[in-house]
Design goal:
It comes from Rhizobium mongolense USDA 1844. The chain is mostly helical and 197 residues long. The chain is built from nine helices and no strands. The protein is elongated and about 60 Å long.
């Protein structure tokens, strides 16, 4: 019995994302050929255009997938912490550390902003921001964070982690820059506390 059309379309979409993810990680966005991508996926250019509009749309889908995986990994690391404040710090540091991952570095932190623009406007970043905002609201209510605007504090925490990761990825020596970025992130975040540690 043939698969339903919707299921086939979703499989094709996933094949294209997987092929693009591999090509973008190995060659970079600009050097990745659409013909090679579609051949790797066993599909036509028409399938790429139908699902993503163009190569840029495909990159956006790949970035969304990887960025969502990064957020899930960071949250999993945060849940191992003893309290919500330490979880926020651990998640931010984990996000920054992911800048050492070659795939993350190339696709999300270098090619993504160059092609898709400001990462703070990406849907995946916005969902992370909302999670951080809810944590910040709880910490303000508990008196752990100063009485600040929760969205402002969440945006600055998220922005600091994102910009630190961008800095690490773009640096000439990412492993050397990483500890400096994480230390500065933690120090900046500490300023939000009612009683700095």
């Amino acid at each position: 019995m043939p698969k339903p059309r919707k299921e086939t379309m979703e499989e094709n979409r996933m094949k294209l994302i997987a092929a693009a993810r591999k090509a973008f990680a190995e060659k970079g966005y600009s050097a990745a050929s659409m013909d090679d991508l579609t051949a790797e996926a066993g599909l036509t250019r028409g399938a790429l255009y139908h699902n993503f509009g163009d190569k840029r749309g495909l990159l956006a889908a790949v970035v969304e997938q990887i960025d969502s995986e990064m957020a899930a990994r960071a949250q999993a690391i945060g849940t191992r912490e003893g309290d919500e404040w330490q979880a926020i710090l651990a998640e931010g540091a984990a996000y920054i550390e992911m800048a050492l991952d070659a795939e993350v570095q190339r696709i999300v932190l270098l090619d993504g902003p160059a092609v898709l623009g400001d990462p703070s406007k990406w849907p995946s970043q916005n969902s992370c921001l909302q999670v951080t905002k809810r944590s910040v609201e709880r910490l303000i209510a508990q008196g752990i964070i100063k009485q600040l605007d929760a969205e402002a504090a969440a945006r600055l925490l998220s922005g600091a982690a994102l910009n630190a990761a961008l800095w690490v990825a773009a640096s000439e020596n990412p492993p050397n820059v990483l500890p400096k970025a994480v230390e500065a992130f933690r120090s900046l975040a500490d300023g939000l506390l009612s009683k700095p540690s």
